[in-house]
Amino acid sequence: MIKNAATSLMARLLHLPRAAPAPTYRRGHLSLLLPPQLLRAPAPTPAAAAAAMSTAALTVADQKRALRSEVRRALRALSPEQLASEDQAIQSAILNSSWFKESKSLCAYISCSRLREVDTSKILAEALSPNSEYDGHAKDLYVPRVEDKNRNMRMLKITTMDDLVENSMNILEPSPVDASGNAREEVLSASSPIDLFLLPGQAFDRTGQRLGRGGGYYDTFLMKYQELAKEKGWDQPLLVALSYSVQIMEEGIIPVNSTDIPIDALVSSSGIVPISPAALGQI
Ligand SMILES: Nc1nc2c(c(=O)[nH]1)N(C=O)[C@@H](CNc1ccc(C(=O)N[C@@H](CCC(=O)O)C(=O)O)cc1)CN2
Ligand SMILES: Nc1ncnc2c1ncn2[C@@H]1O[C@H](COP(=O)(O)OP(=O)(O)OP(=O)(O)O)[C@@H](O)[C@H]1O
């Protein structure tokens, strides 16, 4: 946990003395949107309020960027042994869970060790295994493919790790067509629901906040998928994030926008933390 690092970071960002309590950020909380001088003013003009809100919105983006670099530094300081031991504990917790075993279709990320992401290789292997320990069937597995820099990401079905090729960011992604030249099935046009998303990220907290790498790819995709599930009358999927210990923040440290999609549960080497009512009912 890097509470002290994150607190000192927020103090620097907000020009507060170090002893000041860390600010709390809540969805739709007015004091996040408006700077102090505006909160004190009795009746700001609409133009002044709009200008102040755009400055404050930029500040949240800056705070997110700063927290990402702080976490990146903390992750780089971990030894390979520490990373491997947490990878093992996190993957075992997931592989042994009833919600993973019972899931029939899932979206997962292909972990990238250069980015210090929690390893998903054992989970992916089990999902693709035709003789899975649970019901002897492979699961339907969809993995991300970035389409452009405008937050467009698709989740494409793969049946083997050989379906993956390295992209320009050195992350493995599925080719858009399979070995026979057929377009891969994609989640947003599939005819059945996804049970489970295994999510990457830079920082998380126990209230369900998640900070990603800043592309907005996951928040945008999850918003689209949740709308689709609502339209189709499907159950919403369980959103589970995987986290090294140093990526778990105290409540109130992670800056939040209205487009951030909260997670249902968090898995770290200390175990599984169910957060939402949906997760408390299933985990
Ligand atoms: N394994 C994995 N796949 C994923 C994601 C992810 O976070 N992890 N994505 C989730 O969106 C999308 C790809 N987005 C990415 C965004 C940034 C970087 C990256 O290398 N970022 C560097 C910093 C680059 C910079 O700031 O200039 C880094 O984080 O160190 C990689 C993937 C889809 N696939
Ligand atoms: N659903 C959305 N619609 C429009 N813009 C969005 C949406 N989701 C995110 N964005 C924009 O994408 C940019 C990056 O967002 P943010 O910093 O929250 O991403 P992140 O959580 O780090 O990334 P990700 O969700 O991909 O893991 C921001 O400018 C944000 O406003």
Automatic annotation (TrEMBL):
**Record bears the keyword Magnesium:** yes
Cofactor names from the entry are: Mg(2+)
Identify the keywords attached in UniProt to this record, alphabetized. ATP-binding, Magnesium, Metal-binding, Nucleotide-binding
Q: Which family does it belong to?
A: Belongs to the 5-formyltetrahydrofolate cyclo-ligase family.
Q: Give the InterPro entries listed for this entry.
A: FTHF_cligase
Provide one Gene Ontology cellular component.
mitochondrion
- The protein here is known as 5-formyltetrahydrofolate cyclo-ligase
**Can you tell which superkingdom this protein's organism belongs to?**
Eukaryota
User: Which GO terms fall under biological process for this protein?
Assistant: folic acid-containing compound biosynthetic process; tetrahydrofolate interconversion
Q: Which reaction does it catalyse?
A: (6S)-5-formyl-5,6,7,8-tetrahydrofolate + ATP = (6R)-5,10-methenyltetrahydrofolate + ADP + phosphate
